[in-house]
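Dear support,

I submitted the protein below through the web form. The confirmation email said the job was done, but the results page showed an empty box. After a refresh the structure appeared. I'm attaching both so you can tell me whether what I see now is the final result or a partial one.
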Amino acid sequence: MNNSDSDPLIERFEQALRDDSLLFFDVEEFEEITDYYLETGQLQRARKAIDMGGAQHPYATVFAAKMARYLVQSSQLEEAQEAIQRAEGLSPNHPDIEWARGMLMMRQGKTQDAIQSLRKAIQNSDDPFPIQGTLASIYSGAGMFLHAIRILKAMLQEEPEDAHLLYLLAINFDMANRDDKALSFFENYLNDYPYSETGWYHLGVAQFRQGQLEAAGRSFGFAITIDEKFSAALFDLGRLNEDQEQYAEALDYYSQSMEHSEQNGYTLYRKGVCLQSLNRNAEALRIFQEAIELDEELDEAWIELAVLQGEAGNALKGVQNAQKAIALDPDNPDYHMVAHDLYAQLGLQREAAKSLQLILHALRVENPRGLQEYAGILVEMSHVDSAITVLEAGVQRYAEDPEMWAIYFGFLWSLAADLPPAIQGINDSWLRFGEPFHLALMEFYPLACTDPVVAQIWLLPRE
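What the results page shows now:
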């Protein structure tokens, strides 16, 4: 149903409420009015329409089914169960009964029963569209994304230009990890509706996730050409440029996005990241502070503030902000790593050591190989010190594992920045663990074993 501004029936009903006057509506009109308020979540007015309809048409059985729906939506579940039973006695074939029962089952966690009831409601309804929406939401919430996609496609047959339906469909394609299907769907959709900015946008999102960056840029561009104030497309053009390390361009798109939407912390955070990448740290610091003023739960902005404050020599303030990020996301090992570095900068060795243990706990890694992989990722991100920190924590956890020591000292050797400690560590580990250590080093760092100095170690006798 259209909104109240454009629907004469709803406007007439609301005028009657404003004037506190009694206007006559027939049963079908009251049904339509009630459905509008139930489907838009205006429950008080839905109840008013049900009560007025029942008063004007006391022998109409339909309002019992509407009351059941109202009670479910207003979370009066025991009353809803009783209302469903009353409605079945008065109008057993009304589709609203199974609709209400399906929603009640959903609230009670009986997903399969809810699905069966909603399917029955759809079969018996002259207007299945809103019931299909409820069924699609249940499928999506239950992780049955392909079923949700099928229902949403059917709904689009009736309302092909409904932007919200396109959005829900795109989400379910994403959750089902079917970007390929999203691509083909939106390409076909745009053949029929080439001026749909929403269609172009979701095609661009799917292309972006598939790594088709140039095509994604074109699709976002078409969306903006159709609607120059399309803030989501402007934002994702910012992300696309940021991913391509075109930080100045990304900043511009983020700024344009915020001109056409409500200020939000996450877009400010992304601007701050770009400013950091452009070495405009003072501006980045200010932007991150603005971001957390808008969204105090934006852990990404808290941690970036901590990093910048540490680099500026204000490690104490940095630690405080790192702890705020950790409180919001305690399982993020990167946050504990930042805290460790800041504690070390302050000379707080006990707190730094505790952070090492928290890093390992957050990583949930059960073997040294996983730690080596994570350290390798950190090196690729130019976080060498953090990689060393991870492996230091590893040798504390796996102190009796020759594989862990081989990974640690092999890693230090591979850095070639301070070879004597690495060589000494290899020597000590050979004497301690013997051949298991030798074999592990050969597996993880074969080049280290060819080092002439290291090769001499294997000749040393072990007691």
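Response: this is the final, complete result; the empty box was a page-load delay. Residues 172-261 form a domain with the Serine Threonine Protein Phosphatase 5, Tetratricopeptide repeat fold (CATH 1.25.40.10).
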